[in-house]
Write a structure and sequence with these properties.
- By secondary structure, this protein is mainly beta.
- The protein has a single domain, classed as Porin.
- It is built from one helix and ten strands; from the N terminus they run αββββββββββ.
- The chain has an eight-stranded antiparallel barrel. The chain has a two-stranded antiparallel sheet with strand order 4-5.
- It is elongated.
- The N terminus is likely disordered.
Length: 201
């Protein structure tokens, strides 16, 4: 997660450095909030979430394998641990630049999810869609050691970005033991802020 001011400064300053062709591999990490609707909301009304992903950019398209956790904002309710939801899957993005260092994207997601605590054993498939904006630039990989070195012209280069994403996901969670009950539907509305580092994206 984003923990150090120096890393945040590095990512913001990346937007002032010239960009290169949009092809390459990258790592992405983000934090945000989740609003839960449908039947799962009785167990997990809203949540804090964290997302990590590895991706590949090819011109206007990007493909990400991601893992995310949606953790209850109320750790305990009347002395009982709250239900959490973990998900993972594939996102495909269509990206369009709107300025030299600014891009908008649309994405579609296919994933699986599983719950714990009161809903231990429930899991199922999900589909989602979203949109986002990213501010990015290119600089020296030495900036990972000390952010002012990001502006050096010598040595290997990397791309860094800040991004903001809003999304919607739908899951149908089936009980592991059919005797436990019927399926539970879950709709998630998310807002996520994060950073990405890579060869390009």
């Amino acid at each position: 997660m984003v923990r150090r001011p120096a890393l945040m400064a590095l990512l913001v300053l990346a937007a002032t450095v010239s960009t290169a062709s949009a092809d390459g591999l990258y790592f992405s990490e983000g934090l945000g909030g989740t609003r839960v609707h449908d039947e799962l909301s009785a167990f997990l009304p809203d949540a804090f979430h964290a997302r990590v992903a590895i991706g590949m950019r090819r011109r206007e398209w990007a493909y990400e394998l991601f893992f995310a956790g949606h953790f209850s904002n109320d750790i305990y309710d009347y002395g009982a641990p709250q239900t959490n939801l973990v998900t993972g899957g594939l996102s495909v993005k269509y990206i369009q630049p709107i300025a030299p260092h600014l891009e908008l994207y649309l994405r579609g997601t296919a994933s699986v999810g599983a719950t714990d605590q009161d809903l231990q054993g429930y899991s199922g498939r999900g589909l989602g869609a979203g949109a986002g904006i990213q501010l990015k630039g290119k600089g020296s990989v030495l900036g990972l050691l000390w952010w002012p070195l990001f502006f050096l012209k010598q040595g290997p280069r990397m791309t860094a970005a800040l991004w903001l994403d809003t999304g919607y996901e739908f899951y149908r969670l089936q009980p592991g033991d059919q005797k436990r009950g019927s399926a539970i539907d879950a709709q998630l509305s998310t807002m996520t802020f994060g950073f990405a580092l890579g060869t390009d994206f």
